[in-house]
Design the sequence.
């Protein structure tokens, strides 16, 4: 690890130009265009330059930017005999009349670089759930809930975490695991009143523990339990996030820390923050301006559940649990020049050059996409194929029809047939003459 | 007997994805099936009394290797950075084979002695096992367990030497067979195979052979079980009823005539005495005489004849006579070359009065057409086929049913696009092919340019044997004519090796990929492919001729080329061929050999 010199201005300008030409800042400019009278583009470009100068100055003079060398010819042979794992979840996208199917499978890809033969690679479905969220007799949740999308999200998040946990438990020799997406997710959205708990069987599948109380089977405590398990085992695991979710939580934390450590006074911090706020630029966008290929920001522990000012929004019922969630040790790493930095999250105490080097070297195998290739592989593996989606749909329709025919109610039967055989504009739906 | 449909050893894959009653896809275990293989999968079919077990049979028509886990970008980085794939985290093992199956039909599970295919009314089940049936099961399936039919063995299933493929004789001899392939695809070998099988049951065969591809039947008649092989050369003779064809031939071969000239030609024909059985050459000579007679006032037409008209017709007739003559000479020369090798040709008997000498059980009559141009070959074919067909159509039993083989069929039945719709044999063949099944006059059409064939005629063929085809035009044409050739089948045509093909139509129960047997014992030892490379290497100029040329040049030096000045003086420049031929004109080739050498 080496600390890097301040960026020359031309380099920043050049980078801004390429980003603008790639359309990266389109949305920000459009947002600003309404409010500002002067030549938006002109002032925007100037603003970006100034911002980069400011941030670059902050980060580099505080020694917060480091560099990882891309040396594939050395790196890969040195990995011989190690074992890496990649995890990703796939959700089937099925639209069905009168049903809310849930079909999730979490795939795992384990590989030993440098090995030949059958035990080089393992693919496994580490966790899977198939259910109908409308059905009162469910396998996954113990009750229904109006926000289906939330139920699906929660199920995917917890299934992925559960899969990581069980994978470490089963395969003892994993040197590092990468998971697609954040390692730790904000949980407040799933703490709204009425959000159902997982069934006993689903909970047991997720955290391998039987006999949990109703309360403990709720998403928040269950997810907390799984993450803690993972962390306490000392698992080397990193969440890799490619999508820029917006927000400046990371930079805000950097500034906070600088103030805390006496590197920055409060007044200037406020000025800087207001300046950064102007075009609603995100952490990824801002860091993209100043990071060079292979560079990353020194990791910082971030509370994904929100800072002190946000804690009042936590659902009261779960305040205690939410307060106990592990922090995400976060960094941004830019794998190659023309790719936005990846956000990498680990548990505190486990981040290492080794892990970042793995992220960098696997990402460089997809030079243009700039994302760890192992995650790309497992993504393809876990993705619920289209034909399977269709099959779930067909199977479901048949089931419904069977149920309908089992009733004595002729109207119900008629209606079911009409519903299932209807395409967008069907004569069946026309009013009877 | 049906245990194999459950046996793990025979399981080669699993059905995935959407299945219909026509096709399904399965994930194939490595190295366990190939393109063209017959596969089976068990299924439950709803019947009147609950469901019953059935086997759905299909043919593998496509195999794709998929490695969805290996991005192209990564491949590029590996090669640019010189990294070993195995050292990275990239996946190498997850490629899989996806096989596409065309469904042939279903059989009832229990019914193994009589595997009758019935249409599939219920799709296969995704997740069902796919099995490789044992040879015996396929054999029963291919024949429908029906052993009474006469079969013509063609070869074996591609990739399954243990399963024979045969054609139903009856469907070939009356319902016609087309053999289509690019040159070198194995058409002649395949035709020989089928014909050999037909001779084994003494079926009468007539072959129109423009290249002498079938002459080896004569050489190898002993190998063919002592079949009576006759080699005929065509004598173009005129009988009353075919004078029309001859007139047409003359009209087409000769110079283009103006309307008055055509009228005059008709008069000449009308005024010429035709002795049935006279050669075309003599007939034309007679016509020329008639021309002279009419010009000299011998005609009683009354009109004064224009001397130019008469001469034009005469010249045209003379041209035709010489053309026919030279073709006959070619034909004779080719036969003469074969004579020392034991080949004996006789003149083709009159198909009208002696058809039984051409068509006879246990006989192969080969009509050797080499040396003649397409038009004349077509006229000959037309006359022969017309007469033989007429004998069958009269239902008099003068001759037995027979099969006619037409090689280079595109020259005999060209499509409309070829601009040769007046080819004489076109109408004849059209008639034979539509009515042939009533009278037992089957055709075997062989062509390397299917797209040039007449579409309606080709579509009357009820069976097809298509070997290697590469030309997209030909492939599309074949697809448009053969109803049951799937797109994937059309796509594999170009991948066939010599002697591999698809056979489909009434002669088989369903389309099959076949490796045709190569009858090596029928390959002629006497006639081989000419080695032109060697011939060119061995060629040397005739020393005598060279010597004479030099003597002439010495004695009479060649004139220098005429200068432009002489031209301007109004004199005609000497024709170029005068100087060109100067060397040879003096020498008499026949006498030259006797001259003592210097
Ligand atoms: N069934 C076969 N098995 C093995 N080899 C074959 C087979 N059929 C053809 N061949 C090979 O291909 C060569 C060409 O075959 P054949 O003369 O039958 O082709 P063709 O289609 O009739 O060609 P052309 O259009 O030139 O007449 C044969 O000499 C032989 O070497
Ligand atoms: Mg041939």
Sequence:
């Amino acid at each position: 690890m080496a600390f890097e010199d301040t960026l020359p201005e031309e380099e920043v300008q050049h980078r801004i130009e390429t980003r603008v030409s790639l359309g990266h800042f389109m949305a920000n400019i459009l947002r600003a265009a309404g409010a500002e009278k002067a030549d938006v583009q002109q002032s925007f470009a100037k603003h970006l330059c100034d911002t980069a100068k400011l941030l670059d100055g902050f980060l580099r003079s505080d020694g917060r930017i480091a560099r990882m060398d891309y040396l594939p010819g050395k790196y890969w042979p040195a990995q011989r005999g190690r074992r890496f794992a990649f995890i990703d979840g796939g959700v089937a996208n099925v639209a069905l009349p009168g049903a809310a199917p849930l079909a999730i499978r979490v795939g795992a890809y384990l590989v030993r670089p440098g090995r030949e033969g059958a035990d080089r690679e393992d693919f496994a479905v580490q966790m899977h759930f198939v259910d109908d969220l409308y059905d009162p007799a469910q396998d996954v949740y113990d009750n229904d809930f109006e926000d289906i999308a939330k139920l699906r999200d929660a199920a995917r998040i917890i299934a992925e975490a559960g899969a990581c946990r069980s994978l470490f438990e089963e395969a003892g020799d994993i040197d590092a695991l990468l998971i697609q997406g954040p390692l730790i997710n904000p949980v407040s959205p799933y703490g709204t009143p009425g959000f159902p708990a997982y069934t006993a069987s689903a909970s047991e599948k997720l955290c391998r523990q039987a006999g949990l109380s109703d309360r403990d089977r709720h998403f928040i405590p269950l997810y907390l339990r799984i993450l803690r398990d993972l962390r306490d085992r000392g698992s080397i695991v990193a969440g890799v996030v490619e999508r820029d979710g917006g927000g400046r939580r990371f930079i805000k934390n950097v500034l906070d820390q600088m103030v805390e450590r006496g590197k920055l006074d409060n007044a200037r911090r406020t000025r800087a923050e207001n300046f950064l706020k102007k075009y609603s630029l995100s952490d990824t966008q801002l860091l993209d301006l100043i990071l060079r290929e292979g560079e990353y920001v020194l990791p910082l522990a971030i509370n994904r559940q929100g800072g002190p000012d946000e804690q009042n929004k936590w659902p009261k019922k779960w305040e205690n649990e939410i307060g106990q969630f592990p922090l995400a040790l976060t960094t941004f790493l830019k794998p190659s020049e023309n790719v936005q930095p990846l956000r990498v999250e680990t548990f505190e105490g486990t981040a290492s050059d080794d892990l970042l080097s793995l992220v960098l070297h696997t990402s460089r195998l997809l030079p243009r996409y700039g994302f760890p290739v192992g995650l790309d592989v497992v993504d393809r593996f876990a993705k619920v194929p289209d034909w399977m989606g269709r099959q779930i749909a067909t199977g479901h329709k048949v089931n419904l029809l069977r149920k309908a025919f089992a009733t004595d109610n002729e109207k119900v039967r008629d209606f079911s047939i009409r519903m299932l055989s209807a395409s967008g504009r069907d004569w069946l739906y026309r009013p009877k003459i | 007997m049906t245990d194999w449909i459950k046996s793990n050893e025979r399981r080669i894959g699993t059905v995935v994805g959407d299945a219909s009653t026509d096709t399904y896809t399965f994930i194939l275990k490595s190295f366990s099936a190939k393109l063209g293989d017959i596969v089976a999968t068990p299924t439950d079919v709803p019947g009147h009394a609950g469901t019953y077990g059935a086997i759905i049979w299909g043919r593998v028509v496509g195999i794709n290797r998929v490695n969805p886990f290996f991005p192209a970008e990564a491949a590029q980085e590996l090669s640019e950075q010189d990294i070993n794939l195995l050292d990275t985290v990239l996946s190498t093992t997850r490629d899989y084979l996806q096989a596409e199956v065309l469904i042939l039909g279903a059989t009832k599970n229990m019914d193994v002695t009589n595997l009758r295919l019935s249409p599939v009314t219920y799709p296969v089940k995704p997740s069902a096992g796919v099995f490789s049936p044992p040879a015996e099961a396929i054999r029963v399936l291919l024949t429908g367990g029906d052993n009474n039919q006469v079969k013509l063995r063609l070869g074996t299933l591609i990739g399954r030497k243990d399963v024979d493929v045969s054609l139903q004789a009856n469907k070939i001899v009356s319902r016609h067979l087309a053999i289509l392939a690019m040159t070198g695809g194995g058409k002649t070998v395949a035709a020989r195979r089928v014909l050999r099988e037909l001779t084994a049951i003494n079926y009468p065969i007539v072959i129109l052979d423009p290249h002498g591809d079938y002459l080896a039947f004569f050489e190898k008649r002993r190998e063919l079980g002592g079949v009576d092989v006759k080699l005929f050369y065509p004598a173009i003779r005129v009988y009353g009823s075919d004078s029309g064809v001859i007139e047409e031939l003359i009209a087409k071969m000769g110079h283009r005539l103006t309307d008055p000239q055509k009228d005059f030609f008709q008069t000449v024909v009308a005024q010429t005495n035709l002795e049935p059985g006279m050669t075309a050459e003599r007939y034309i000579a007679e016509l020329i005489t008639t021309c002279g007679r009419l010009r000299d006032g011998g005609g009683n037409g009354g009109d004064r004849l224009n001397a130019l008209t008469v001469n034009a017709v005469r010249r045209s007739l003379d041209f035709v006579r010489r053309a026919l003559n030279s073709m006959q000479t070619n034909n004779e020369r080719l036969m003469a070359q074969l004579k020392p090798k034991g080949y004996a040709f006789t003149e083709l008997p009159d198909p009208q009065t002696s058809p039984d000498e051409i068509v006879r059980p246990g006989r192969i009559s080969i009509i050797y057409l080499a040396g003649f141009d397409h038009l004349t070959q077509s006229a000959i074919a037309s006359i022969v086929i017309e007469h033989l067909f007429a004998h069958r159509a009269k239902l008099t039993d003068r001759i037995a049913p027979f099969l006619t083989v037409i090689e280079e069929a595109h020259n005999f039945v060209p499509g409309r696009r070829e601009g040769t719709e007046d080819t004489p044999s076109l109408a004849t063949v059209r008639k034979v092919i539509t009515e042939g099944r009533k009278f037992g006059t089957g055709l075997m059409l062989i062509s390397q340019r299917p797209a040039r064939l007449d579409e309606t005629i080709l579509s009357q063929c009820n069976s097809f044997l298509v070997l290697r085809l590469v030309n997209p035009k030909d492939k599309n044409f074949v697809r448009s004519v053969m109803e049951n050739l799937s797109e994937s089948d059309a796509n594999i045509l170009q991948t066939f090796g010599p002697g591999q093909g698809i056979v489909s139509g009434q002669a088989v129960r369903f389309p099959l990929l076949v490796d045709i047997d190569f009858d090596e014992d029928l390959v002629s030892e006497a006639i081989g492919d000419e080695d032109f490379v060697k011939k060119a290497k061995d060629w040397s100029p005739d020393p005598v001729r060279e010597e004479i040329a030099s003597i002439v040049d010495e004695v009479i030096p060649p004139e220098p080329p005429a200068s432009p000045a002489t031209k301007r003086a109004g004199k005609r420049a000497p024709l170029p061929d005068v100087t060109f031929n100067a060397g040879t004109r003096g020498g008499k080739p026949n006498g030259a050999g006797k001259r003592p050498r210097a």
